[in-house]
């Protein structure tokens, strides 16, 4: 029996404008009503894929990815959506799915409101009206996202707390979801952390004290207040590990200016269209609303802690230019087999008799150390050799020839330039500066150039893969490996991509 996928999506802007449950319910009813009225779908098995609160420009949606996996497994032969924007708002990616991916996989795609049914299309293409709609959805997304971002900033300047969960020590006011009040059950923890810091105790030792005294972690309190289950990304064992205070948790608390009663916001330059893309702003550029809520820590004590931070550097964290990845290509990949946390990389220097320095690089687990669990440190050099040999054995890497290096990046850049040019021409067309026919001719020529470049890139990759296989590099790690579990000087397990 054929199976049809009903894809339903609620965007972030939809959540602001209307009730999310009604939106999902309406989409579901709309799709099922269409299928009920069409006799050809009478015997189809229906499978729902629902993404709540995800942007149409983001492909990393849980239900969306799950649906694509089912498509690849040939479990889905037909996909139906209310309109094209529910499936994808990026018109270039949308076109790739409609023109190439789905026809290749033999999947029928239906967008009811847009009158699109791939079964009725000529060849594997999409007509110009559909392409225009894709472009308009793309422009609409950019426009509405900026408006949402602007309106949220306005609300924040009024002191309205918009984050879904306040920091440890606070909770949302039951009578006003945009206001935070002191959480008496956890405010004492924040005060204790600041007191220990003022007493000169390092953030790492503060974490150790909190674990020894079995003080609840921020994630535990969040799960109580929000009724959501916060789980660590760990290897599943019969015994679920207890949430642990870490050096990072303590640093986050000590650096949080909200505890002084000042509401801070817009600490990052973050794209609404691409939430994973952001950069930290200098503190001077943060948004602030003074005396916005009840303080847990005095401004004087907060400033004292910041001075300790600057003097001792024991709280050096995310907002610094510390190039932590340069110690070893395994950094960020090496994990502890006991708690599954990423291992920290440390270097120690020893002076030789001749006066030169010898640097030892090794990995250690700070989480196990905080919990007094024994974990053998690992020499980075030994682990790197084992991982490198494993990669060579699995993929049979060949020595590179410098004269035969494939210049893929410049060609990739050319594609970006051509896509940008296509968008510029469309804007000219919409503004009346370019005729419809000239736009169509220009678009077809650009598409041909893009396809030619893609074919060159694919051919180059097939002829020779560019890899430096003289030693383990971060490029090799990012290409082939998800994580490496190790203890002592032994690699226990490698999770491949």
Automatic annotation (TrEMBL):
Keyword Coiled coil annotated: yes
Coiled coil spans: 443-470
Boundaries of every Resolvase/invertase-type recombinase catalytic domain copy: 3-159
Entry keyword set: Coiled coil
Source species, domain of life: Bacteria
Pfam short name (any one): Resolvase
Ribonucleoprotein keyword on record: no
PROSITE patterns in UniProt: RECOMBINASE_DNA_BIND, RECOMBINASES_3
Recombinase domain segment(s): 167-315
InterPro entries hit by this protein: DNA_bind_recomb_sf, DNA_bind_recombinase_dom, Resolv_N, Resolvase-like_N_sf, SSR_resolvase
Name the UniProt record assigns to this protein: Recombinase family protein
Species annotation: Peptococcus simiae
Taxonomic lineage: Bacteria, Bacillati, Bacillota, Clostridia, Eubacteriales
């Amino acid at each position: 029996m054929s199976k049809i996928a009903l894809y339903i999506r609620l965007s972030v802007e939809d959540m602001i404008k209307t009730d999310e449950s009604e939106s999902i319910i309406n989409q579901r009813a709309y799709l099922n009503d269409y299928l009920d009225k069409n006799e050809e779908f009478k015997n189809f098995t229906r499978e729902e894929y629902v993404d709540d609160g995800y942007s149409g420009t983001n492909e990393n949606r849980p239900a969306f990815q799950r649906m694509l996996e089912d498509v690849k497994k040939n479990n889905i032969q037909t996909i139906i959506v209310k309109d094209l924007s529910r499936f994808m708002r990026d018109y270039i990616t949308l076109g790739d799915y409609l023109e190439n991916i789905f026809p290749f996989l033999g999947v029928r795609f239906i967008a009811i409101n847009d009158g699109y049914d791939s079964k009725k299309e000529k060849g594997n293409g999409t007509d110009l009206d559909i392409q225009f709609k894709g472009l308009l959805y793309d422009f609409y997304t950019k426009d509405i996202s900026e408006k949402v971002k602007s309106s949220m900033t306005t609300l924040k300047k009024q002191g309205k707390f918009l984050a879904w969960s306040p920091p440890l020590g606070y909770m949302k006011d039951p009578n006003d979801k945009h206001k935070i009040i002191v959480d008496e059950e956890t405010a004492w923890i924040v005060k204790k952390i600041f007191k220990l810091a003022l007493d000169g105790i390092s953030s790492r030792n503060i974490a150790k004290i909190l674990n020894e005294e079995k003080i609840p972690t921020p994630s535990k309190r969040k799960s109580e207040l929000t009724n959501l289950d916060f789980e660590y990304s760990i290897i599943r064992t019969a015994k679920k590990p207890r949430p642990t205070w870490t050096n990072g948790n303590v640093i986050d608390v000590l650096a949080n200016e909200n505890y002084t009663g000042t509401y801070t916001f817009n600490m990052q330059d973050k794209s609404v269209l691409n939430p994973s893309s952001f950069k930290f702003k200098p503190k001077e550029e943060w948004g602030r609303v003074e005396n916005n809520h009840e303080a847990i820590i005095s401004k004087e004590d907060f400033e004292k802690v910041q001075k300790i931070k600057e003097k001792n550097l024991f709280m050096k964290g995310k907002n610094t230019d510390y190039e932590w990845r340069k110690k070893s290509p395994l950094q960020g990949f090496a994990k502890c087999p006991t708690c599954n946390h990423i291992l920290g990389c440390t270097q120690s220097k020893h002076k030789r008799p001749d006066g030169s320095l010898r640097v030892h690089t090794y990995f250690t687990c700070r989480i196990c150390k905080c919990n007094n669990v024994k974990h053998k440190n690992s020499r980075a050099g030994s682990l790197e050799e084992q991982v490198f040999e494993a990669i060579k054995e699995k993929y049979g890497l060949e020595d590179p020839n410098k004269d035969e290096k494939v210049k893929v990046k410049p060609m990739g850049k050319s594609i970006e330039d051509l896509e940008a040019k296509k968008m510029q021409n469309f804007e000219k067309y919409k503004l009346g500066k370019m005729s419809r026919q000239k736009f169509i001719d220009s678009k077809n020529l650009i598409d041909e150039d893009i396809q030619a470049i893609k074919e060159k890139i694919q051919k180059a990759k097939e002829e020779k893969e560019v890899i430096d296989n003289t030693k383990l590099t971060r490029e090799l790690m990012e290409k082939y490996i998800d994580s490496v579990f190790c203890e002592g000087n032994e690699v226990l397990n490698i999770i491949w991509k």
